[in-house]
Write a structure and sequence with these properties.
Strand content: 15-25%
Radius of gyration: 18 Å
Number of strands: 10
CATH topology: Rossmann fold
Largest sheet: 7 strands, mixed
Mean pLDDT: 96
Strand order of the largest sheet: 3-2-1-4-5-10-7
Number of helices: 11
Distance between the termini: 30 Å
Order of helices and strands: HHHEHEHEEHEEHHEEHHHEE
Number of domains: 1
CATH architecture: 3-Layer(aba) Sandwich
CATH class: Alpha Beta
Helix content: 25-40%
Low-confidence stretches: none
CATH superfamily: Vaccinia Virus protein VP39
Structural class: alpha/beta
């Protein structure tokens, strides 16, 4: 996993171009759960700022942290000047003035499990909110999804990130809600799903795959061949399931 976590820098521009952003409904979900004004927020693993722009655009004073210099440079090109940026991994962040909200957009699974929730709690004010959200982007048509699996199979068995704590996909509460329920630091654990469908050209979907860590670890020639085969198997336009699963918790 550490190698996958460090693989995004070379594709920072593609990440910004092809990864979908986050809808206004997500901010509304977090704000409603908070039940009080969210004035300050710390973002963990901000990437190129997809979620940064959502929260900063709603008047939240966001401190966006990201360990990769190339990703952070891309974020700075696309976010408001009033967003504070820090080049640091989650584990490197010192405790300081606590935040109303700490959130992670498709990045929490890259953080180290040991001491994760105690460290998270130290960054939050009492009653403050932790939010984690993200989800796979996959072909909605089962036949297209199978064609993609068949095309990549000789090179890559799977391209997702397994549940960090081994929670089976059929279980109602998914990770990190499972861990949060066991944590002494958090209460009122909730899970919500925002349904979302997107349509992309075949080339755009392959562009999205080019930012997925499982492919980034392949040798360059192999990666090019995988993408060539996937592109050949796709229709001209691809309907995608891109549901966002959000987990929310409150600092005791």
């Amino acid at each position: 996993m550490p190698e996958r976590a460090r693989s995004f820098g070379p594709v920072a521009e593609a990440y910004e171009r092809y990864r979908p952003g986050y809808p206004a409904e997500l901010f509304d979900l977090v704000a409603q759960y908070a039940g009080r004004p969210v004035r300050t927020a710390l973002e963990i693993g901000a990437g190129t700022g997809k979620a940064t722009r959502l929260f900063a655009g709603r008047g939240v004073a966001v401190t966006a942290t990201e360990p990769d210099g190339a990703m952070l440079a891309e974020l700075r090109r696309h976010t408001p000047a009033n967003v504070r940026t820090v080049r640091a991994a989650f584990e490197e962040l010192p405790p300081g003035e606590p935040y109303d909200l700490v959130y992670a957009a498709a990045s929490l699974h890259w953080t180290r499990p040991r001491g994760r929730w105690a460290r998270m709690a130290r960054l939050l004010a009492p009653g403050g909110v932790f939010a984690c959200f993200g989800g796979p982007v996959e072909p909605a048509d089962p036949a297209v999804a199978e064609a993609v699996r068949t095309a990549r199979a000789p090179f890559l068995e799977r391209d997702d990130v397994p549940s960090p704590d081994g929670t089976p996909p059929e279980q109602a509460m998914q990770w990190p809600g499972t861990e949060l329920r066991r944590s002494e630091w958090f209460t009122d654990i909730r899970q919500a799903v925002l349904a979302r469908q997107l349509t992309r050209t075949a080339e755009e979907y392959v562009g999205h795959l080019s930012t997925v860590s499982a492919y980034l670890l392949l040798p360059q020639d192999t990666r090019a061949e995988v993408f060539r085969r996937i592109l050949a198997a796709l229709p001209e336009r691809v309907r995608l399931d891109a549901d966002i699963t959000a987990h929310l918790a409150r600092r005791r």
